[in-house]
Amino acid sequence: MTNSRIAAVDVGNDAVKANFGKLDSSLYIPNVVARDLEDRPVIGIEDLDEKDPLDNLHIRVHSPALRENNAIYRVGNLATKTTNSTELDPGSYKSEEDQTLIMLFASLALDAVREKNAQSAKNNVVEANYTLGTGLPLREVKEGKDVGYRSSLLGSVHQIEFLVTPKYQGMKVNLKFDEVKVYPEGFAAYVNLVMDNDLNIINKELIDKQILIQDIGGLSTDIAVIKNRNVDDDKAQGFNLGVAESLEMIREEILRKHGVELDSRRDVVDIITRKNDRHHIMVKGSRTNVHDITDRILLELAKKQYRFLRNVWQRNSQSEICYFVGGGSAVLKDYIKSLNNKLDGFNIEFFEDEEESIWMMANAYYKLISDFIRKNEKKTHGKNQEQGKKVEQKTGSSK
Predict the structure, then answer these.
(1) pLDDT of residue 396
(2) Which end of the chain, N or C, is more open, meaning fewer C-beta atoms within 10 Å of its C-beta?
């Protein structure tokens, strides 16, 4: 794995968050795709290379892992501007969706074509090897779907061709995986709580506690029960409910009531979480409050999430604290805190830094895959030393 670059990728329902190399680069791409034509029209095509590739990501993806192979997509910000864009549907399995792989491949390809990584490109083709750490919801790992997901990535070449994309137009990336580790998301969150980027133990007081981690995503919610530094598989629970459905309801109601069509669920999240003009939109040029819509729908979702917490805590009464993580937690934080204050008063904790909560999984996968590589290298080094001693002994005895 000497020429293999580390990649830690969290394909979240809202966005892909990815860390690369020795944390020398990272990427954030909204998880939205749209089928497209090879020669998409661009106003001011002669100025294309002056634009940001992240805002104009246009690719063809060839991979035996995909159901629809060799298709062309707009990805991320560019896809949000079309009428046929798609986001992952509530009830779907992340491990079985082409969109998950398209977003994963797009993020890796963008890293691979960056100037310092693509210096060895021949005929505009970059050969890129990665050691990947990623994850799936707990319920999918419990059902064994991580095995098929991992095998679909290993042993094949996945090619991404940049079409009408600034700076990289005409370049192709051949992706190969030297190793793929798929972690349950709840356990990853725990690792991020107790380990820093140098793999040193932090928050020692959490190490031997029984804790809950409620990870609210777009499509699902996982509650991991951590005992003796491991996820208790029997007690951990996954629920087929995230924030995506509620965000879609808010989007539809804003359209019905105000005649304003928001491009994607990403726009709804921005309205709910931004620092200035929160819960406001522009209607015919006038700043308009939509708090009545967002409050009602999000409060209903918060009540359901709180019910999940209450039921799991009742079955695990010796738990000492529950940490709320994931993009959905950032959206529901104020509502869940308010409910908890009025009702049970559980010992719960949110990350006040929303960026930390949103990047938690990608950071955790980076720590886990780095730890795997370190242990693997140590093992290999030990074997080499042992073989060296045997050779010396044989050589010595033959003299």
Answers:
(1) 60
(2) C
Q: Say if residues 218 and 243 touch (Cβ distance below 8 Å).
A: yes
CA 384 to chain centre: 37
pLDDT tens digits for range 63-117: 999 999 999 999 999 998 887 888 777 767 889 999 999 999 999 999 999 866 6
How, if at all, do strands 71-75 and 158-162 pair?
A: unpaired
State the chain's mean pLDDT as an integer: 87
Contact 85, 34 (CB under 8 A): yes
Nearest to 21 by CA among 127, 145, 135, 108: 108
46 vs 50: CA distance, rounded Å: 9
Q: Which residue has the higher pLDDT, 272 or 14?
A: 272
Q: Minimal CA–CA distance to 42: which of 70, 84, 74, 86? A: 74
Residue 250 confidence (pLDDT): 96
Q: What are the start-end ranges of the E strands in the chain?
A: 5-11, 15-20, 25-30, 33-35, 57-62, 71-75, 125-136, 158-162, 172-184, 211-216, 221-227, 230-231, 237-239, 280-283, 286-289, 321-325, 348-350
Give the global pTM.
Answer: 0.84
Would you mind telling me the total number of residues written for the chain in this entry?
399
CA R_g for the chain: 23
How far is Cα 28 from Cα 76, in angstroms, rounded to an integer? Answer: 9
Q: pLDDT at residue 1 above 50?
A: no
Contact 214, 305 (CB under 8 A): yes
Quote the tokens at residue 131. Answer: 């050691």
Distances in whole angstroms, Cα of residue 210 to Cα of each of 224, 288, 316, 384: 10, 46, 9, 40
- Looking at beta carbons, which pairs linking 21-26 to residues 24 or more positions away fall under 8 Å? 23/197, 23/366, 25/111, 25/114, 26/362
- Nearest Cα neighbor of 137 from 12, 308, 303, 305 is 12
